[in-house]
């Protein structure tokens, strides 16, 4: 007697799990994006941050359409990307799931810039330049209007675990 073939959905699920595992072989930095919304200032953890162009200064990040924060972040005209320092795992976890509203005292407001978090090795204040729907994510390109950086180890994510990238 030969084994019954797996249902198509089970094969897709197993393939998706293996695909995610393969993607996890690429170590990434960990960032929190902040923006204003009708409900108040929000944060969301990402690891899809990358530089696009030096002139003009463009960066991008990707937003999962299944995110609880899809509506406000997909529509935000301004946002800040914070590259987290090595001690910010709790901050990363805080904004990884759920509503993500920022509490008083969690952020700084400077002029009309989006909310700014402490505990970042770098911060990029951006105006939305372009939005591109791709598969189950939206790629959001931001034009950097201001930035700040400091030395120090950063938080990383590799094979489902946090780590640290140190200055050389």
Radius of gyration, CA atoms, in whole angstroms? 18 Å
Sheet having the most strands: 7 strands, antiparallel
Number of domains: 1
Shape: globular
List SSEs in N-to-C order: HEEEEEHEHEEEEEE
The amount of beta strand, in percent, is: 35-45%
CATH architecture descriptor: Roll
CATH topology: Pnp Oxidase, Chain A
- Intertermini distance: 60 Å
Query: Helix segment count?
Result: 3
Question: Can you say what the CATH homologous superfamily is?
Answer: Electron Transport, Fmn-binding Protein, Chain A
- Percent helix among the residues? 10-25%
Structural class: alpha+beta
- The overall pLDDT average reads 91
The side-by-side strand order for the widest beta sheet comes to 3-2-6-9-10-5-4
Give structural notes:
With 168 residues, the protein is of the alpha+beta class. The chain has a single domain (28-152), classed as Electron Transport, Fmn-binding Protein, Chain A (Pnp Oxidase, Chain A). Helix content is 17%, strand content 43%. The chain has three helices and twelve strands. It has helices at 8-23, 70-75, 89-94; strands spanning 28-29, 31-35, 42-46, 50-53, 58-64, 78-84, 107-108, 116-117, 120-134, 137-149, 154-158, 161-165. Strands 3-2-6-9-10-5-4 form a seven-stranded antiparallel sheet. It has a three-stranded antiparallel sheet with strand order 1-11-12, with no helix packed on it. Strands 7-8 form a two-stranded antiparallel sheet. It is globular and about 65 Å long. The model has no long low-confidence stretch (mean pLDDT 91).
């Amino acid at each position: 007697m030969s084994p019954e073939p797996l249902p198509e959905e089970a094969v897709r699920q197993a393939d998706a799990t293996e695909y995610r595992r393969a993607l996890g072989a690429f170590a990434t930095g960990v960032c929190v994006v902040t923006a204003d919304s009708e409900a108040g200032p929000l944060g969301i953890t990402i690891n899809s941050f990358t530089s696009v162009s030096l002139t003009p200064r463009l960066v991008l990040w990707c937003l999962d359409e299944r995110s609880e924060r899809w509506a406000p972040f997909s529509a935000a005209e301004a946002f800040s990307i914070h590259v987290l320092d090595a001690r910010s795992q709790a901050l990363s976890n805080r904004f990884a799931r759920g509503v993500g509203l920022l509490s008083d005292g969690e952020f700084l407001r400077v002029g009309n810039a989006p909310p700014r978090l402490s505990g970042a090795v770098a911060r990029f204040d951006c105006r939305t330049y372009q939005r591109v729907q791709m598969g189950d994510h939206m790629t959001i390109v931001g034009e950097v209007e201001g930035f700040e950086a400091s030395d120090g180890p950063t938080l990383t994510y590799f094979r489902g675990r946090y780590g640290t990238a140190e200055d050389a």
